[in-house]
Amino acid sequence: MVRTGRNRIRLTAAAFATTAALATGAAVTPATAATPQTQTQPEAQAQLQAQAQSLPLERNQRYVALGDSYASGPAIPRQTDLTCLRSSANYPSLIRKELGVTDFQDVSCMGARTDDMWRQQRDTRRPPQLDAVRGDTRLVTISVGGNDIDFDGILKRCTHPSSPIPDGNPCQRHFSQRGTDELDKRIDDTAPKVAALLKAVHKKAPRARVAVVGYPAIIGDDARGCRESLRVADGDVPYLRGTLRRLNAMLRREAFAQGDLYVNTNATTAAHSACRPFADRWIEGIRSTRASAAFHPNAKGEKAMSEAVLDALVFGPKR
Question: Does pTM surpass 0.70?
Fold first, then answer.
């Protein structure tokens, strides 16, 4: 099926039409489900989650966006929060606009880690992002995990903006010098934090649909293009691309384990990575004359991410 913008708008409107069940906040209980008296708390919560995946969203019900800079859209006009570098054209804002949701809170923030869902973010002093999630929240999107594995530090170690690009794979050798891959360990260590976050969201908003949004395709298959755009050694291109894929695979596993959606934005943006020619990029390289942060989605990238989320909400995830 070709998912054109018009088809998506029509199907989205149908999928999120008003229903009396959500308007009153009542749970729709299948006839075969256990009664509240016989259900354990985990069973009851699982039932509410399952119902949330199929029930529509009203225009006046609450959508909350959590996450880091890949959700906030740094440097993309118009910046509505200069502390968190949040754009009015980021993917959460585009989703809100297409769904027509009027009760919307975007608390995504540059530099956010999973810990910042529960605590005040140290560098921005913003309150815990989970504070935005309430019992009446019906949709939550989450982009998180990259800062937990120190994306910024990895890129500083593996790119060579002002020095000659070395041969081989110096970045991979650095992170594997102790005999195991340090970045794999960082990803493994982040997994239980993501799981805890998803459980916390469901506890606060048991009828919310939750979509974990994966990271887009920063690094493509074109070694020469990556060398020029990202200034990465040829041997480190597949290593870094593999690390990003393993991070996304972890996010996918944790989302599915909680019965949530996982949105594969890597597939959506693969043909427009930072290694593509400048005009074709939806993700920026180490230097750009466009309004976007290095290694981050530009306006086209955020739009593509919003469309991937909407497709997942309407058509289901691509597994």
Answer: yes
